[in-house]
Amino acid sequence: MLTLFMIKNCDTCRKARKALDEKGLPYQVHDLRKDGLSAALLEHILARVPVMEALNRRSTTWRNLPEEDKKEIDANKARALIMANPTLLKRPLLDTGDDIILGYRDGDYDTLKG
Q1: Domain count, the chain
Q2: C-alpha torsion sign, points 23, 110, 14, 98
Q3: 107-109-113-114 Cα dihedral, nearest 10 degrees
Q4: Is 114 part of a structural domain of the chain?
Q5: Which CATH number covers residue 35?
Q6: Global pTM?
Q7: Sign of the C-alpha dihedral computed for residues 65, 69, 75 and 76 taken in this order
Q8: In the annotation, is 13 catalytic?
Q9: pLDDT in tens, the chain (114 residues)
């Protein structure tokens, strides 16, 4: 089954949900604020997506981090920041079981099958 990692107040996440609903695809929602992010789940995601691509530097969470935390960011520091602040994970993030789709633009889910 598909898993959509998101936060409820994100407009792009809502568009992704709508696209999945319109295609009639079954999926489960994982709210990063409510459900959190375990180390095992993060490692599952990062096995398919490079950590620097998964780090959302456009988020409010990123902007609110102390400047010291944002300096000299590398893969290890990014991983630790995402673990401490799950909303730093780029979203929506769709786990298809075989692949991870980061973000959402119209047409991104067109090839998915139920």
Answers
A1: 1
A2: positive
A3: -120
A4: no
A5: 3.40.30.10
A6: 0.91
A7: negative
A8: no
A9: 999 999 999 999 999 999 999 999 999 999 999 999 999 999 999 999 999 999 999 999 999 999 999 999 999 999 999 999 999 999 999 999 989 999 999 999 999 986
Does the residue 110 lie in any domain? no
Task: Give CA angle at 89 (88, 94), nearest 5°.
Answer: 155
Instruction: Please give the structure tokens belonging to residue 50.
Output: 């490079």
For tokens 């994982």, name the residue.
30
Instruction: Supply the range of the domain harboring residue 53.
Output: 2-102
- List the catalytic residue out of 10, 25, 49, 73: 10
37 closest CA partner among 9, 67, 3: 3
Asked if residue 112 belongs to a domain, the reply is: no
Is 21 part of any domain?
yes
Q: Which residue is it, tokens 């929602």?
A: 29
Residue type for position 103: G
